[in-house]
Amino acid sequence: MSVKAFQQVETKSAHDQVYHILKRAILAGFFRPGEQVTIRGLASQLGTSEMPVREAIKSLVAQKAIEATQDRKFRIPVLSSQQMKDILELRIMLEGLATEEAAERLTQEQLDHLHAIHEEMGEAISNQDSQGMIEANIRFHFFIYDQCSNQALPAIIESLWLQYSPTLTEYVPRLMKHLTHKDQQAARILDRERHTRLLDAFKARDPSRARAHMEADLSTFLRVVDKIGDSFADDFEQHRSVRDYAKFPLH
Amino acid sequence: MSVKAFQQVETKSAHDQVYHILKRAILAGFFRPGEQVTIRGLASQLGTSEMPVREAIKSLVAQKAIEATQDRKFRIPVLSSQQMKDILELRIMLEGLATEEAAERLTQEQLDHLHAIHEEMGEAISNQDSQGMIEANIRFHFFIYDQCSNQALPAIIESLWLQYSPTLTEYVPRLMKHLTHKDQQAARILDRERHTRLLDAFKARDPSRARAHMEADLSTFLRVVDKIGDSFADDFEQHRSVRDYAKFPLH
DNA sequence: AATTATGGTCTGTGATCACAGATCATAGTA
DNA sequence: TACTATGATCTGTGATCACAGACCATAATT
């Protein structure tokens, strides 16, 4: 289910297509926290009518990926640093478990596929293709999670990512400013470094080491968020901009 | 959010009301696994039009509380014993954590409220009021989870309950048959016994003991499901019956 | 000039309708 | 009698419309 967010979904229903497009767009950082989303706006930009968009938005509201405000509008949630930390705490548990379970089951073929995604991500970094980098990162993680033995787990992890991604995307460049220049340089290849360490653990057939790496990386980020706190969270504003959905075609 | 499923929701939107009614109905075992739910059927029985019901169903589909079948119908999911075990495994982690966190924060007032629910459940058992027993049980658990420090946790737990409750309700009487008569007698007051032990741990201000009790009880059930397996899961059929929504008034 | 009133616009909401696909009972046919 | 064909019915789906509330810019009034 979750990795399908970045695959072509072969459903005939317009509602499902809109739903998956919006999920992809949210995960890819296409929306900014606090940004308002409107039914008619999305409908016209996606070339469909209100109905499928309404249902998709309501579905995402149920998953807390979109927020229904008191004045009867929809917007992308703005997470406080406390909410970020809460979700990170759960991510450490759940993605740690999923990583360990996946490590116990990964076939050579699946490992090769992970390597392929890893290479794609390397190319995206080389080409300064941040969009491609983000998408490769998502596909890398969810390909792992989808291999875990607990079938209920990937969906929960995905729901956390959906809540968390827009604020995360907004946080990252701001977190960068709090790092030294040397650390910034390191951070640019950090994701890939993490993936390399994970792949090593997978190759070594060491599930607990794989889990430890995943947990450690998320814990590092948790500490950073905890340190920075809400010091810059107050300037999330209501965003409204013309959106280019060319990357998420409906047909 | 979650405990509100059993409170009066003061929203003006028909969609939200239908959504909460359906959640309550699902958690309370009102639907049987495999049972078909239809938009027009619910709309007429709830005295509203198709639109709010459509949106509510789509929301619940996104949470996997309702399943969209391949032949374009909606039905209550039928979970295999493996799916039950997967969810139970996550429940042990998540409800264990939530219980521990709640135990660290419970005020005396909240403890008193838990006692009150505990008493209600005792009366329901005495009166053979199974509906009241189930609802008291739900309120007892979610009142605890709602007190945990991690604000993202209760919603995840609720989503697991929504997936899990219909099949669980169907399982229980069948599991009973696999117990000895003496064990059956014990099982009738099992829920209350569990709650008593939990309340003791809460009163003793012992979070880790509270967590251990919660985990142990769920683990016991996990072992039972594992032992019984899918031996009787094949006779879940498509149910269709006239539903009495009198207990879930829309207005 | 400052305040109030007004009207247009944008929002979600609920209702209704036409339609296509699936299903099933019934009637027609071999 | 057994099989087939047909038509009624039920399903979700998508589109469209009217409506009320919020918002805002503009005009009228004090």
Strand-helix topology:
The structure is a homodimer of 251-residue chains.
Chain A (H helix, E strand, L loop, with lengths): L13 H14 L8 E2 L1 H8 L3 H13 L4 E2 L5 E2 L5 H25 L2 H19 L3 H16 L7 H25 L3 H8 L1 H14 L3 H22 L23
Antiparallel strand pairs in A: 1-3, 2-3
The structure holds a DNA duplex (30 and 30 nucleotides).
What is the alpha-carbon Rg of chain A in Å? Answer: 18 Å
Low-confidence segments of chain A: 1-9, 237-242
Distance between the termini of chain A: 20 Å
Largest sheet of chain A, in brief, is: 3 strands, antiparallel
How many helices of chain A?
10
* Strand composition percent of chain A: under 5%
Helix content of chain A: 55-70%
Tell me what the structure shows.
The structure is a homodimer of 251-residue chains. The first copy, chain A, has helices at 14-27, 39-46, 50-62, 81-105, 108-126, 130-145, 153-177, 181-188, 190-203, 207-228; strands at residues 36-37, 67-68, 74-75. By secondary structure, chain A is mainly alpha-helical. The first copy, chain A, contains ten helices and three strands. In chain A, strands 1-3-2 form a three-stranded antiparallel β-sheet. The longest helix of chain A is centred in the middle third of the chain and has 25 residues, at 81-105. In chain A, strand 2 (67-68) and strand 3 form a beta hairpin. At the A-B interface, helix 3, helix 4 and helix 7 of A face helix 3, helix 4 and helix 7 of B. The first copy, chain A, binds a DNA duplex (30 and 30 nucleotides) through residues 13-15, 38-40, 48-52, 54-55, 68, 71-74.
